[in-house]
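Retry 2 of 3 after timeout on previous attempt. Resubmitting structure tokens to design endpoint.
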């Protein structure tokens, strides 16, 4: 059974039943948490990269992987036409309860026949590609959702630092693993419920740039964050 752990946590918080955060377990042998209140942050509480992305949004916006809808709500309040999309039914219910007017509950690859000026993928939103070999499939699909002068705004992180030795000085060093080092498998747990295992993709900028070029998209580095993260913009060539 594929439990909507993320959606359960969001709705609990919204209904005043917040007692714990989401626990995450990854193939990197790391346990971490997603603080549920952070998913309900305001613009002023967001990282600079997210603020910059929201400032760059134009025209009609598709917020892919919208979560609790914090980005969509901010854009909506600014008078921007935004559609919040997520495959989590709980997330979409949360967005609607918070006042997001336009919502879609589906996988982005199954979403068709609409076009936008801005595709927004924040909180490492491009991670939904899961595997590097699927990245071109996602980029090609994103192109089908873009109007002629549209843009894709996305952030990601280069997690090479998690593999490097402290005495490693060669800037071209790569970990000795068979797959791309940014491919990570996750499960989430919340109040005794466990999600299915799902892949998530962390992209270094050069790899994103090469994939964008292969998909005939222009890639631009907008800014970098404080912890190996960055914001990029993709546009039609």
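Retry 2 succeeded. Sequence:
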């Amino acid at each position: 059974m594929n439990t909507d752990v993320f959606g359960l946590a969001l709705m609990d918080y919204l209904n005043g039943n917040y007692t714990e955060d989401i626990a995450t377990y990854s193939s990197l042998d790391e346990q971490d948490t997603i603080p549920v209140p952070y998913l309900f942050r305001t613009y002023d509480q967001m990282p600079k990269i997210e603020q910059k992305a929201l400032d760059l949004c134009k025209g009609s916006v598709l917020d892919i992987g919208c979560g609790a809808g914090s980005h969509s709500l901010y854009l909506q309040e600014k008078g921007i036409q935004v559609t919040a999309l997520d495959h989590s039914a709980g997330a979409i219910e949360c967005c609607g309860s918070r006042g997001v007017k336009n919502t879609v509950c589906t996988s982005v690859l199954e979403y068709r026949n609409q076009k936008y000026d801005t595709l927004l993928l924040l909180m490492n939103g491009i991670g939904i590609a899961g595997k590097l070999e699927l990245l071109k499939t996602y980029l090609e699909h994103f192109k089908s959702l873009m109007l002629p002068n549209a843009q894709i705004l996305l952030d990601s992180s280069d997690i090479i630092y998690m593999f490097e030795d402290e005495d490693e000085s060669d800037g071209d060093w790569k970990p000795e693993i068979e797959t791309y080092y940014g491919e990570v498998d996750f499960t989430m747990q919340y109040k005794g419920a466990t999600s299915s295992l799902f892949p998530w993709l962390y992209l270094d900028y050069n790899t994103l740039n090469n994939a964008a070029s292969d998909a005939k998209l222009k890639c631009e580095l907008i800014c970098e964050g404080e912890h190996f993260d960055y914001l990029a913009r993709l546009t039609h060539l």
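Attempt log closed. The chain has one domain: 5-159+181-236.
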